[in-house]
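[job 4471] stage=fold_predict status=RUNNING
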Amino acid sequence: MTGKMSPIQSEYLAVPCGGSEVSVEIVSSQTALEKLAPEWDRLCKEVNEPNAFMTYGWYRAWTKRHMREQRSRYTPYVVVLRQGDAVSGIAPLIMRTASRWLRVRKLEFATIHSDYNDFLVAQNQATCIESFVQYLSQTANEWDLIDLRDLRNPEESLAQIERALTSAGLSFHRTQEKEGCPFLPIDGGADHAMKKLSGHVRRVLRKRLERAAAEGLTTRILERPDEDPGLIEKLVALDLHKAERSEFPPFLGTYPEVFQELFENLGPQGWIHVALFEDAEQPVAYQVGFCCGSRLWDYTKAYDRKYYRFAPGSSLLPALLNFGYRRGFTEYDFLRGEEPYKLVWSSGIRKRHRLLIWNHRMASRVRKFIYCDVKLSIRRHLLRSDV
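[job 4471] inference complete, writing structure tokens
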């Protein structure tokens, strides 16, 4: 270690692994993050399963927002693995003080708004995972808990992580997240996908589409939302209008500057798209999604309730499936949530996991017990009381 980490420094640690030496760098300043951006973007394109939630643009947009809200309680903590001069892996984490009175120092992913979280590793996955875990073990005095939610990693990768944690002497507990991510293959256009639906569902959907077309409603998909002037303002207005009659707060309307930055950063790189349902070129429904390798992801949407009879969300899906088929995408993922309208279309559900890690220090074990076990017991007791 070269010294105690501060918010304006990077920290290095040489970790021997498999007969080679992997350097581990903690990037925690905005300047250092900007210098890392080109290599981060490169690595995102080289991984086997691209993930928009792991891009530099996503991390930068959300950390800027959360740092402004939480200030000193929230600090970037990007673990960068290098073999020689090349970046071979990135764990895009943050350090957050999760409890004011207990001061639990948690390492976690940047935001709860990511439906899938991963470690960015293009090659030598076993070496990178072992190096990452060894670093965590050797710096155990700097953190109390590591809470890795919404992990998309397949069972083989999770088992690899767990073996490395056991070897490093770190304790852990893995659970399955409650909500899975329904998906369906894109092996044809919308008509092909609709053949798998029941006759009743097909008839209802076709009648809605016919009525919408008869009244002049159209669909449009923007592959470069950053090039559409005033788009974010229109989407925010639609989201806020929807929230007036909803029990749920607006999402895009709460974070307009985050989505504006996502459009500007991810749009030119082909990561993000916006599907619009329009009446005389005025959006009455939208869906913001991501293009991740060969997969289309359905992220967030809103619609004007005056057009409820057209089921705008369902009416956008055929256009997106046709778009995906024309562009060579092979899967449509609805992301988090097992709502009935998703299950009607989907052919499977992808599970996600949560991995909680703590170390041998008494402070870490006590904080884990109070922050996790006690809170869980209280929550269960309250649920039983409500029943």
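[job 4471] summary: Residues 1-9 have pLDDT under 50 and may be disordered.
[job 4471] exit 0
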